[in-house]
Amino acid sequence: MKIDIKLLKEIVDEENVTDNIADLYVYSSDASVHTKLPDVVIRPRKTEEIQKILKYANKNKIPVVTRGAGSGMSGQTVPIDGGIVLDMKKMDKIIKISPEDVLCKVEPGVINDELNRVLKPYGFFFPPTPSSGKICTIGGMIGTNASGNRSVKYGATRDAVLGMKVVLANGDLVTLGSNTKVDSSGYQLAKLMVGSEGTLGVVVEATLQISPIPKHRAMGVANFATLQDAGKMISETIASGITPSMLELMDKIAITAVNNAQKLGLPNVAAIVIFECNGMVKEAVEYDINQIKKVCKKNNGTGIKVTHDEDEMTKIYTGRKKLFPSLSSYKDGLFTTALADDMAVPMSKIADTVQKIHEIAKNNHLVMSAYGHCGSGLIHTKILMDTNKKSQWQDAKKAVKQVYDYVHSIGGTTSGEHGIGFSKGPSFKEEKKDSLEMMKSIKHALDPNNILNPHKLMDSPDDWLTATPLRYQVDI
Amino acid sequence: MAKNTKKTSKSKRLQEYEKQMNMCIRCAYCFEKCPVIKEVQWDTDGARGKIIMSYGLLTGDLKPSQYIADKLFRCTYCRDCMDRCPSNLEILEIFTNARTELVDAGFASDTHKYIINNIKKTGNIYGDTEVITPEQKGKIPLFIGCQYLGRPNKTKKYIKILEKLGIQPTVVKEICCGFPMEVLGFKDEYEKHKIDFKKQFPYNDAIALCPTCTVFLKEGHKIKAKHVLQVILEKIPKANLGLKVTFHDPCDFSRGLKIIDEPRKILEKLGVEIVEMKNNKENSRCCGGGGGILMTDQELSNDIAKKRIHEALETGVDMLVTSCPTCESTLKKAAQEISEKEGKTITVRNIEDIIWRGLKDAENS
User: Is the pTM of this model over 0.90?
Assistant: First the structure.
């Protein structure tokens, strides 16, 4: 692909453009299993630069992939068609904090935890709480509609995005959404952008709703001898009218992995559920957490502990936060791969789904852990396998399909918060087969030359295993 | 459709770490406080980027080049990434082997080669044949290290402090611990040097003055080494210095040796109040002086150091104390520059100065 590097250097200054093979190699991958070299990586600093870059790319039909921390797990930021990678980390200004309007305006390269650090003195926080919050960017969170352990109470990124400024494929800058929580002024285009994984535009500014930091919180943990009991506990908690601020499940494999890597000494049980309640009134928090305790007991929970101590809460939560990368310590020779990494199912089907995941893993000679923000029906899993063996990849391909076929069969959806990229493309297209043409029409309307993150989502290849090289040493 | 092909490893040095590199799930958690990536902001410059490049060298997807060498040597070895990596990867081991790979391929910098030649010819990093080791017979082997040998007054002070506390150090004519050879990618040279080192310093237990030497005596030479502050804490008397300072935890102290309380307890005993910086203890922010970066990337090193001085200035105290000679000189330089350009002043001192003053104060009272 012929790219005018000289022109790009004129747009963003020489120090912000690289086409050195070492840089391209690093930017060829993210936290997914895929890798594909871009042709150039650019670090824009302002909106006008992005407009110029997109105008040039659109005219010359050069793909453009937007990237924050590159921590996406489904290949969202892997440049499957080469082209330009826009590293957005230099656009990291917090433009405005408006506690009186309960909002803030930020550039897309702002890191989630950095935003929260700045909001804290005002008594506010940005509620989606991804586990990768210390390094993930607001832009990336918008791209995937990220959420985290507090999604059960606060929802996902889309729920907290009020508006944004977006550069479209043709270089036009548009303002979408508003500054208000309610907005019935036409199509909700800002909400459409959230979760579009960089395929419809490049977000250059976001208006975000912030939430007051709750004055009180309490956290609890309960152990369960069976997944069924844990699943029932989760389902009954949500149905009871109590709104916990966190409801997390960890299965046996997750527990083992965390103990191996973090040495936390978690109990050897079928499932652990971590729950949290927060709010402005201590007595209300107390009431809620005690109600959840009762639900735990009713469903055979053991070792039930509740704490109001911040250090204890941090300790309880540490293992969960580092779980995903800890999975590589589960067994020597098995490596964590971000495959079938998330899904969302109806609440009443959580236990069955976790059970099914274990069954599919066994049938396909793999190890799969199930954990996640089950309070919102979200389940994470990872496939642990010998990445050097071709047969394991074939098994993984089958397992991924089987997992999502099951998820769809019970009324669930392919992704709850990590997004589709192209790792989950085939299953996503199967789930959304009725609306694929609608999505393609929208994409074509906004990006007729298909430059923005092409071959992702509804346009993703039919076989994720061979869509790009893998970042592992294996003959496929 | 893309064909994925298994490649024959092109790197003997990195083959041993293939598993580690596969365990890296590229989560980017290592970015959180990496001092280099905070300044430079290219993914390539963070730990994840370096691991990916190392993987490329392993598979042959990347050929050794000056560009890659520059990137891989752009690391202060602050260990922050290792503390944050949830997969507990031996990140610095991977970097060291990748650096060795590049040195083998002819991409060592002239400055680094100069340092290594100095060590080979004279036993110290300065190439100084006249470095005088204050040899003496005592009861406990003391390893001084190049940094303190190059600061003879500080060395004398530390020895006098130990003697005042009733500790009789044995000091022998020594050669460099060899850490620069290892970290700068001269592993073969280090393996030869190790033999000479053992002859010069034939002890299984020792005290060391420099945090980096202490770590390396333990990890590289398998000597049961303690840092001198751990020994001083056991015997330091009370004093009433009435100072208010901030303490900079050297990376090799708080993350390498996990020594966090000892300097604080010493200062407390001497009547020194500590106002902590925002990033302290195991989260201490690097001074920018380690990993060989001082020799080849002075501007970056200085930028990192200035950030740390700004953090110190935010505490409102007028003195920063540290316990590493490299941190002291790096931060002193940055403090000087900030004083000249911004008019904000903070004095940088090594802890042995404070201990010395404390002992004098204790004697007088």
Answer: yes
Domain B236-364 fold: Rossmann fold (3.40.50)
Domain at A91-212, CATH from 3.40.50.2000, 3.40.50.2300, 3.30.465.10, 3.80.30.20: 3.30.465.10
Interval B198-202 mean pLDDT: 95
* Pick from B1, B61, B87: CB nearest A25: B61
Average pLDDT, chain A: 95
Task: State yes or no: pLDDT of B56 exceeds 80.
Answer: yes
Does A25 contact B52 at a Cβ distance shorter than 8 Å? Answer: yes
Assess whether pLDDT exceeds 80 at residue B3: no
Find where tokens 């036009």 sit. A172
Residue-range domain boundaries for chain B: 12-104, 112-123+132-232, 236-364
Is the domain A216-424+459-469 a CATH 3.40.50.12780 member? no
A9 exposure class (CB count in 10 Å sphere: 0-12, 13-18, 19+): middle
Q: Give A236's Cβ-side CA count (13 Å radius).
A: 16
DSSP string, A245-302: SEEEEEEHHHHHHHHHHH-------SEEEEEEEEES-HHHHHHHHHHHHHHHHHTT-E
| pLDDT tens profile A353-385 | 999 999 999 999 999 999 989 999 999 998 999
Nearest to B29 among A18, A21, A135 (CB): A135
Please say whether the structural domain A5-89 has been given the CATH code 3.30.43.10. Answer: yes
Cβ-defined contact of A473 to B1 (cutoff 8 Å): no
Output the average pLDDT for chain B: 94
Q: Considering only CA atoms, which of B17, B19, B26 is closest in space to residue A33?
A: B26
- CB spacing of B23 vs A322 below 8 angstroms: no
Tell me the fold of B12-104. Answer: Fumarate Reductase Iron-sulfur Protein; Chain B, domain 2 (1.10.1060)
> How far is B331 from A380, CA to CA, in rounded Å?
45
Cα(B68)–Cα(A209) distance, rounded to whole angstroms?
42
pLDDT tens-digit series, residues A290-310: 999 999 999 999 999 999 999
Q: Are the C-beta atoms of B178 and B293 separated by less than 8 Å?
A: no
